Amino acid sequence: MALTGRLGLLALLGAIVPLLAPSWWTLFAVWGVLLLGVVADLALAGNVRALRFHRAGDTSVRLGETAQVALIVENLGRRRLKARLRDVWPPSAGATPRMVKVDVPAGERRRVEMTLTPTRRGDRKAVTVVVRSVGPLGLAARQLSRSAPWTVRALPAFPSRRHLPAKLARLRELTGAHVALIRGQGTEFDSLREYVDGDDVRSIDWRATARRGDVVVRTWRPERDRRIYLVLDTGRTSAGRVGDIPRLDCSMDAALLLGALASRAGDRVDLLAYDRRVRARVEGASRTDLLPAMVHALAPLDPELLECDAAGMVSTLMARVRQRCLVVLLTDLNTAAIEEGLLPLLPQLTARHLVMIAAVSDPRVAEMAESRGDLASVYDAAAAERSRAERRRLTAELRGHGVEVVDAPPAEIAPALADAYLALKAAGRL
Which residue range or ranges hold the DUF58 domain (predicted)? Predict the structure, then answer.
């Protein structure tokens, strides 16, 4: 049972009337009428306990897009139900409308459409459904709160997918549409063709040249079926925001683009998300299942506000990957975290694998380094320049250990990482 605002107003008037005409009979009459009105409203209001709720609709949606979820209201009672209904979701689900009117005849169903526009990644679960059926006098209502479980998973936005066609076009150039002019170590022999200006003289096949009486060169193609292992750092450094975007989301976007590109290139792609334990893992997925598997594995991840255990991450990786592969670590170039955690472990990692580190830089630091005008701006510029110098020093130290480093702002990190992968393919280093 629920009381309405109209009853509160009438109760206030009922308290004032006896003061104007002090009499026990007046008091009893006023409150008696109100009580009868409440009883009549409760008797005539629709039976909300006879309702049953069912769900249908989308179970996943890409962040920034909308999902449709239907709430089906079934009236098992013997009377028509007119009520107001509120389907309660977490604020980050972006559910609309907040309140709807329903009119469900006895024994029938009505469908209530909800539009969800999530503002955060992860699972968004329906909390409860509240139904209030007000009596004809508007003094009292029957109210019911009942769960109607449903989960909508908000997937990563993947804005870098717009770069995929261009990267695939370049990949096709490397794999057959155009010959590779560089004979990279470890590349596979493709075919023979006549020499043209600009070809590398080291690719001349002298035996074929002698047989044909014309200069013939070998063409090469990047090797396929290589293994790419993406390692996502979900520790405290991934919680930092670059502009309005968390570093972890930028790393996810870059990982998705590289995964989609490498799978099209015929390489095997695996994923590991780690801080002090394994948070997500995708291994052995086929080319067609890889991207959906990665998206669903990354969707519920949130940064952990603790230092990443570099030793645990490296040992987990070494235990799961026996053969040589390309290890792409998506983390932050935080000087203290890298020097104290990862740097001492690099020799054992680079001895077996080709290692690449991808990090998201803050464009605001570059803006601060160029700012001038007043004393505060000069101090900001000095601090920013010192930060950039530390980052350059750390990058040079990592490269000295044989590690490829990709350092780019949020809008460029995904295509830059894809370009670095294609460069390794073209040079035959995979």
Answer: 192-385
CA–CA gap between residue 14 and residue 180 (Å, rounded): 93
| Secondary structure tally for the chain: helices H, strands E | 12, 22
What pLDDT does residue 178 have?
A: 42
Domains contained in the chain, CATH given: 48-155 (2.60.40.10), 159-166+224-427 (3.40.50.410), 183-221 (no CATH)
Long-range contacts at 362-368 (CB < 8 A, ≥ 24 apart):
362/242, 362/243, 362/409, 363/242, 363/243, 363/409, 363/410, 364/242, 364/243
The position carrying tokens 């909800």 is: 114
CB atoms within 10 A of CB 56: 11
For 362, list phi and psi in degrees, rounded to 5.
-95, 115
pLDDT of amino acid 182:
42
**What's the average pLDDT block by block, 10 residues per block, for the chain (430 residues)?**
48 51 54 58 70 94 94 90 91 93 91 94 94 70 87 94 93 63 45 70 76 73 75 93 90 96 93 95 92 95 92 92 92 90 92 95 89 85 92 94 94 95 85
Q: Which residues, other chains included, contact 325 with Cβ-Cβ below 8 Å and sequence gap of 6+?
A: 226, 227, 228, 229, 353, 354
Output the six-digit token pair for 246.
């968390």
Look at residues 194, 198, 273 and name the one whose alpha carbon lies nearest to residue 234.
Answer: 273
Taking the alpha carbons of 271, 273, 274, 278 in that order, is the dihedral positive or negative? negative
Q: CB burial class (10 A; 0-12, 13-18, 19+) of residue 211?
A: exposed
Res 273: pLDDT? 96
User: Which tokens is 99 given?
Assistant: 């309140």
**What is the predicted pLDDT for the residue at 327?**
96
Start-end of H helices in 69-223: 164-172, 206-212
φ, ψ (nearest 5 deg) of residue 190: -110, -65
- List all residues 6 or more positions away from 400 whose beta carbon is below 8 Å from its beta carbon: none
CA distance linking residue 325 with residue 268, whole number of Å: 10
pLDDT at 167: 94
Order of strands across the sheet with 51-57? 51-57, 67-75, 109-116, 95-96
**Stated length of the chain:** 430
Q: Can you state the angle between helices 5-20 and 24-44, rounded to 10 degrees?
A: 170
Written as six digits, the tokens of 17 are: 């009337």
Q: What ranges make up the beta strands (E) of 182-237?
A: 188-194, 216-221, 227-233
User: Within 321-402, where are the H helices?
Assistant: 335-337, 346-350, 363-370, 375-400
